[in-house]
């Protein structure tokens, strides 16, 4: 090793060729360092050394190294990139010369984890570890795609993902200088054919650019545009997975704007293009498409401001300050809401952002202008819910996700109705209105409250007044307070009677009338009209009498 610590630092994470204690060449792999040395000192035989660099290693790495002690094993891809960024990943990809599935099975058995063969053709197996809180870690083991490790790395998507870490020697192999690109904040494909070989990499490049604040090199952008027409050949599931990672990640508005500029929407989200240039009446200050992107941007910042651990010192924005003052007490409940699962592979947050993306999708088709010149969008919420549901089904989302998305789009105007009525008439939603809101929306009601605030900011932008924002925050506080702090009073009162008791006491036969009666009784409870079993029975008798007469 060289005596000069500054020299060591300059080559950290690289392979160097050394002659007589002097570094004469360097490279991303031992072979590259040797070839570089031979060009300048071809008659001498250099020592090839790795210059170590401190990296945060995934906690599981020691166990895997012990389990696969006899095998060549390299950590690759995003986990290595994250290590170089001083981050830890829960998805670890490993490559070996052979026996990928057998190695995965061996690791799963040793860790008492779940195992599944992921791709028999490519000899890839998966290990799934589930923590006590339900969070999962995925370990994928695959045989090299090619004859050597370097060939495997050169066949990957981007240079910053084409870096390998030898878990036994703890050395880095970086044949394409991906670490340098990562340091320079540039996304560069491994080969000119990277996007045509796998068009879903277009979405991945945009996602990673947003996630890591990177720029896509100009030639890569041109290649992405050229390959966009190949996206229909990619399975709906793979496109969905990348899209939902974009929606769940940072800067979704910027990422979607980039996808639009690259010409991706006709092949991914064809309904969205019609929103561009569709003008709206006041208080809207943007066209439908720009409003949608603005709502997404504000939704991201709003959720960030309501996260656990957020400090008010992080913003000098008056509206965000008022938001945290009024709703900050719900941070833990909001975190728990988004920690719930509609699908094990996708987040509640992503479903909300998908709904936000589609909430005004039917405005272009429903646009009309009345005699006074005011632009209207009648039933755009109802029609939009149907369109969003269709696209969600095309992406093979789960039924729970589709239902959540449909409810958010269908009911997104209700929050604004409450806000307008409070601001203009000084009237808060009644207990009946609050009950019906959550009866119709369920857990999606929380999403609707949060999105309603973001939608308002995305509508009015800099023209939003403190008075309107305060009214919206009062509505949000009232709804969330009832949902989380008074659920048995106004949201879901405990049943005073069940269907069998109603049929027995009132001599009724099974049928729709029983469900209608139960719903009417619960609404009467929520509005404070009744509170006992006897009152519920009398209410049911009166309800039957009134409805039979009508």
Summarize the structure.
The protein has 550 residues and is an alpha+beta fold.
Please give the structural blueprint.
Elements: H1 5-10, E1 15-19, E2 22-27, H2 30-40, E3 47-50, H3 61-67, E4 74-76, H4 78-84, E5 91-96, H5 100-111, E6 114-119, E7 124-130, E8 136-143, H6 149-154, E9 164-166, E10 171-173, H7 178-183, E11 186-187, H8 194-197, H9 201-212, E12 215-216, H10 218-227, H11 236-248, H12 252-261, H13 265-268, H14 288-305, H15 318-327, H16 331-339, H17 348-358, H18 363-366, E13 367-369, E14 375-377, H19 380-394, H20 399-410, H21 414-425, H22 431-441, H23 444-460, H24 466-485, H25 487-491, H26 499-506, H27 512-526, H28 533-549
Parallel strand pairs: 5-8, 11-12
Antiparallel strand pairs: 1-2, 1-3, 4-5, 4-9, 6-7, 7-8, 9-10, 13-14
In terms of quaternary structure, what is this?
single chain
Shape: elongated
Sheet-strand content, in percent, reads 5-15%
What value does the Rg take, in angstroms? 29 Å
Spatial sequence of strands, sheet with the most strands: 6-7-8-5-4-9-10
Number of helices: 28
User: Which range best describes the helical content: under 10%, 10-25%, 25-40%, 40-55%, 55-70% or over 70%?
Assistant: 40-55%
Please give the largest β-sheet.
7 strands, mixed
Low-confidence stretches at least 5 residues in length (pLDDT < 50)?
Answer: none
Number of separate structural domains: 4
Structural class: alpha+beta
Determine the N-to-C terminus distance: 95 Å
Strand tally = 14
Average the pLDDT over all residues and give the rounded result. Answer: 93
